[in-house]
TrEMBL record:
Cross-referenced InterPro entries: Plipid/glycerol_acylTrfase
Organism: Gymnorhina tibicen
GO cellular component: endoplasmic reticulum; membrane
Domain Phospholipid/glycerol acyltransferase: 70-156
Name of the molecule in the record: PCAT2 acyltransferase
Source species taxonomy: Eukaryota, Metazoa, Chordata, Craniata, Vertebrata
Length: 160
């Protein structure tokens, strides 16, 4: 019976996750379409709310479909309380759970990730701080950008 459940559930889960991923790509594309100051100015109004609510819900749903149920204990810090989140070790796909639970904050990511099909569009909608591994000044530029966003008094989303 367990093997039969796996034979049925695996393709069903794969189809649902693919559908949710494409829906997240569509939401991200709509939210960033004709975005003024693309990447240099924060998303505002309906664009930011769309990313915070729709993308967060889609990410949580995708993890639920994968079989993960996450419960939050305590209270997530608000933007005025903590303009910067630190999550460690940030090396797996579980980092997206933290993003979904905290309202889709900006992230720090490799610049190469932004050119990945589908995922690149979703990542771009989070207004990431892109780190270029080829640029010798990248570390200094990344710290400067995170500091600039943290001191912007709520104009930018939290950075994780």
């Amino acid at each position: 019976q367990t093997v039969l459940q796996g034979i049925i559930l695996l393709p069903l889960r794969a189809i649902c996750i693919t559908f949710l991923l494409l829906l997240a790509w569509l939401v991200s594309s709509i939210a960033t379409f004709c975005q003024p100051g693309r990447g240099h100015l924060p998303l505002e109004g309906w664009r930011r709310r769309m990313i915070q609510t729709a993308l967060s819900s889609l990410t949580r749903t995708a993890y639920f479909v994968m079989g993960f149920q996450v419960k939050v204990k305590g209270k997530v810090a608000s933007l005025p309380e903590a303009p910067i989140f630190v999550a460690a070790p940030h090396s797996s796909f579980f980092d997206a759970i933290i993003c979904a639970l905290t309202g889709m904050p900006s992230i720090v990511t490799r610049a190469e990730n932004l050119s990945t099909p589908v995922f690149g569009t979703i990542l771009s909608s989070l207004q990431p701080v892109a780190v270029s591994r080829q640029d010798p000044d990248s570390r200094k530029n990344t710290v400067a950008e995170i500091t600039r966003r943290a001191l912007a008094r709520g104009q930018w989303p939290q950075v994780i």
